[in-house]
Amino acid sequence: MSEQKIKDHCRKVSQEVIKLLGPVECLLEPLQDGINFGSDAYFVVIKNGDEQRNLFVKVPPQSNDIKQFFFESLPDDFYMFEREFYVYNLLRSLFKTVIEDQNQDPEDILDFFPIPLTSPGEMTFSRGMEEPLVFENLSTLGFEMWKDEFNGFDFDHANIAMKTYGTLHALGLVLHEENILKDVNLLKLLNMDITKSIFNESGLEMTDKGFKAFIIWMKDHHENEESICKLEDQLRNRNYTKMMTEMFTEGKNHELQVVLHGDASSNNMLFKYDKQNKIPE
What we know:
Layout: H1 3-16, E1 25-30, E2 40-48, E3 51-59, H2 65-73, H3 80-101, H4 106-109, H5 127-130, E4 133-136, E5 143-145, H6 155-177, H7 184-190, H8 194-198, H9 201-220, H10 225-235, H11 240-252, E6 270-272
Antiparallel strand pairs: 1-2, 2-3, 3-4, 5-6
Helix pairs in contact: 3-6, 3-7, 9-10
């Protein structure tokens, strides 16, 4: 998606959603490489005289060969951007309804779930590929990424992350048990077979390389030998495909069905800190 199309859409959002009147100046700054793996992302500043709003925009990748190769290696029915668009624009609304039905405050419980700035219009299946996904830029409100991705969270950050995922899973469980998930497109997008996206040749090659790199890292850092042997066994003859298929099938058949994030890595979370900038809120 061209930068001009992104600017045009952000101007549309500024008028139809944010309600800025008159001509709007739009400035784009790409998110630096290495932070966002599966898409192109931009910080966007829109100005109208003295009024300014800061946005964050995600679109399918075009600016980076590695990201584009990864995206194009996915099966045609993976629907990565279609799913994300529906999750933010429809699933969040369903969660809000579930919470309100229990006479609770949805904004308090859903504070972990960013509100999309989406122009009015029909929710079509392909809309996530046709227009940018737009949010308020939360970094301007004091939110930050965890800075030590490879060494993992400390206790305070892990505690918040686990509570947040618990909330997501509990809300998804209610949707399933109350039979609230009725939208055909959303059901199709959520009820995916993740093994299909991994077990094509491109996905297998990337997984092999990931295993090998991790094994080398573990050996270089003198990690537990038994753990290294288990990883080497999973890599041998691609035994990991059997393990993942068994686990996926077991999960699909489990009596408790929830909504999963799908990519629960530390750099997919933002934290806001106390005044001393030490403890996440």
